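ok trying this again, last paste got cut off
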Amino acid sequence: MRPTANPVLPKRMGGRSLVLMVWLSLAILSGCMVGPNFQRPQTTLPTEWSGPIIESRSVTPAEAELARWWTLFDDPTLVSLVDSAVQFNLDLKQAEARIRQARAARGVVAAGIGPAVDASGAYQRSRAAGSGNGKSGGVITNQYQTGFDAGWELDIFGGVRREIEAADADLQAALETRRDVLVTLTAEVARNYIDLRAYQQRIAIARQNLAAQKHSAALTHQRFQGGFAGGLDVANADAQVATTAGQIPLLESSARQSIYSLGVLLGMDPAALLYELSPAEVIPAAPPAPPPGVPSDLLRRRPDIRLAEAEIHAATARIGVATADLFPKFTIFGSAGLRSADFSSWFNWSSRIWSFGPSVSWNVFDMDRTRSNIELQQALQDQSFITYRQTILNALQEVENALIASAKEEEHRRALIDAVGANQKAVGLATMLYTQGQTDFLNVLDAQRSLYASEDALVQSTGSVSTNLVALFKALGGGWNEGQEPKAASRPDSKNLPDQAADHGQDF
């Protein structure tokens, strides 16, 4: 019996196979890639902003300041909330899952650039039909077979490489989507936190004014009992007390809703932060506004613009994928294995089988399906260009809006500071003159209303100054860094928070 040997091709095939493999490799490396090559879109942007800009700072905002801009407010609670949101927010986790999805999809596409090899093994036992006269039975045979099948579609016209290029662009788009979610998330946490502190300050001012108004009402009742005031003064005093008292529950409701929003942003139960955030604190002081740089900086910093650019790249590459279907497809196939009717001779050298050869296929007629697909991809590319341009315009508008709002709100706040001071003097003078009987109670009511309105407006303006700065940081694309994403802190302890928060239900 001939000794068994490994199932390999004959030696004379080795040189030919090597030459063929080298020729195929050169063909692939030198093969063209049909379809348009991506070029970064050229956009004409204004050379400077029309809104007021702080000139005392450097021309370009520091990367570190934009990456973690919330730390500039010097509020440890705000920093803790933002860092926890970055770690636990569900929208951000979903964006990260889409990155993994895009990376896996890219791996699936990239696998098509190389050969595919399948291993197989089979055993078959069969019986042939007997003779027609029924005197001889059928013959029973066995067949043993194992081997490998290989196929390689040569990417001569770059269809697979264009698919990989599109998958790379999709992966980049997923990365930019996460960054865009990060920018929005940090801004939303800061805005809700500032709103919460503003509501708490408004509640405190309402309670202070309510106490003063109750004191005036008590004084009016005393004067009425002594015959020095009329019933109209008493009614007006009681009405003002009731009006101010009626505004407090609405402010408390808004404050509680802000806490609920922060809880959800942190991926927690809405009421989980009640105990931690219910005690009133001051509104985070707005730091000096950063310089916005030049409009062209937005193309580098804004994740939504970078996302739109990646989508153009993907759409452009898919035109090449569709165009490649116009050309023939070349495939190299081969197989090698062993086949025998007897298990004892299955692995003998004489049992070897092999085949090798190229094939070509060309869809010469498909009722213009391929060309229609090319037109479809071109239309999608046009849409991507339009989206890119619209995204840039929206970004420019957001920065301009934030610049003008920040500047004008600061002017508004300074005027309100003067108004509060003047109204405080007016209340003091009106109250003194009323107790001396030199003026009627209507002047006291007007002075108290004006003071409460100006103090409440000042608190709202102080909050707006901070939230407008948050909007400016968001419009500039702040909240992420190319080299270092924000690091998250540990989740705040929320054990038994609903029970603990019940003791602070009215303490905002």
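PB: full thing came through this time. The chain has one domain: 30-116+158-328+371-504.
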